[in-house]
Amino acid sequence: xxxxxxxxxxxxxxxxxxxxxxxxxxxxxxxxxxxxxxxxxxxxxxxxxxxxxxxxxxxxxxxxxxxxxxxxxxxxxxxxxxxxxxxxxxxxxxxxxxxxxxxxxxxxxxxxxxxxxxxxxxxxxxxxxxxxxxxxxxxxxxxxxxxxxxxxxxxxxxxxxxxxxxxxxxxxxxxxxxxxxxxxxxxxxxxxxxxxxxxxxxxxxxxxxxxxxxxxxxxxxxxxxxxxxxxxxxxxxxxxxxxxxxxxxxxxxxxxxxxxxxxxxxxxxxxxxxxxxxxxxxxxxxxxxxxxxxxxxxx
Length: 299
What we know:
single chain; mainly beta
């Protein structure tokens, strides 16, 4: 008869587990009054067990799901829907060795007619407890999933038109892009959530200078010529001597990133994280004065 046990975490106190175990189970080196070969892998609070049993389990050897042998359907007269929990070190020591080593005592909690939980534990050989999950590692995975966008560069005058030396150019990115983002990553019982809040835009103006704007900037509106902006730049030299006759303007949004965790203690700030940058070529020209001939009577 082949048995397969699929685990989900069940939290039980050691006191209850010891009372439920009973001496017969601690002395049953076969695991369930038969010859048991088993392997298990665990994560904190959960165990996945594959058990093979030969011989006939006793009437009290419940806690496993039995197949009828016809179509693989569950026998509703036997316990089913079992979950399994590896006992803690104290309970393991108190119960002693229950079979071939290395091994662990595992306790089932099942559904079915007449089932009284918690049920007696059984010995599983080669059960291995996985190393605890580091929530900070899961947080970094969540951060890597943050959908940080490249900013759309807006300028006035527009980037496609010539900028003028000694005339301020407005700089901004669309205000609708200025919103928080989040991402989630899970490993074992630990779930980490990373949140990113846009904080500032760093503009590299291509001439060796940078401008840091605390916000997306103010969109230029030609209908409000007296409006002002706190995010602008004034070139003092033309781009004529630059490769291609242009300055390469780069905009990078910096995000304040923090994380929280469920399933393990942890959380905090990860500081400012740069998003992907955007680039645009800008031509900057000298303004030229137009000289006209004096009119009649002019000097």
